[in-house]
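Researcher: Going back to the complex we discussed earlier. I've cleaned up the inputs and rechecked each line, so this should be the final set. Can you rerun the prediction on the complete assembly and write out the structure?
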Amino acid sequence: DTGVSQNPRHKITKRGQNVTFRCDPISEHNRLYWYRQTLGQGPEFLTYFQNEAQLEKSRLLSDRFSAERPKGSFSTLEIQRTEQGDSAMYLCASIPEVGSEQYFGPGTRLTVT
Amino acid sequence: AQSVTQLDSQVPVFEEAPVELRCNYSSSVSVYLFWYVQYPNQGLQLLLKYLSGSTLVKGINGFEAEFNKSQTSFHLRKPSVHISDTAEYFCAVSETGGYQKVTFGTGTKLQVIP
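Model: Rerun complete. Updated structure for the full complex:
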């Protein structure tokens, strides 16, 4: 069990560019979550996958954001036409079953210049 | 819907002194409760959790918390803090059913003073 991994750890991009982040959950964890954490705030829920199905999306997830989880394994989060307000830490978490705590990855810190 | 309130944004405390970080929550359904710790530029590490059973929960690094349903609180305590406890602490809740997405408080920065 190597834990939840996220890549890249840091990403600096210019406004208007597209970025994609990857999350590899703990193997056999069928539930996967994305959160966004801005400076001085707690993480906020973005979206939830059960296996490959995206079952819930927050209103924070504008149409510039898209997430996928093909084959129910790793997940990607893409942000198109990045804006400075997208600068944040993007966290991924997974759980093996109902009634368990979420296991968080180290996060991807995005800076939009 | 659920919400979490952490009343103290920063808590300074001297090394070896006791500390309590306060957390209150609001929810119309039954919840699971968590405390996570975050060190600079790192992800979240679980300190302890309340899922069911005893309302006094012990976690890692000598921390404990008590679930008080009538006061909707889940305060975190440690009898004697160390410099290494300097970090940001987040209280969090999730519904026991549904998708179990987690709602976090705004965090409390614990600063341990030598």
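Model: Worth noting: Residues 92 and 106 of chain B are 10 Å apart (CA to CA).
Researcher: Good, that matches what I expected from the previous run.
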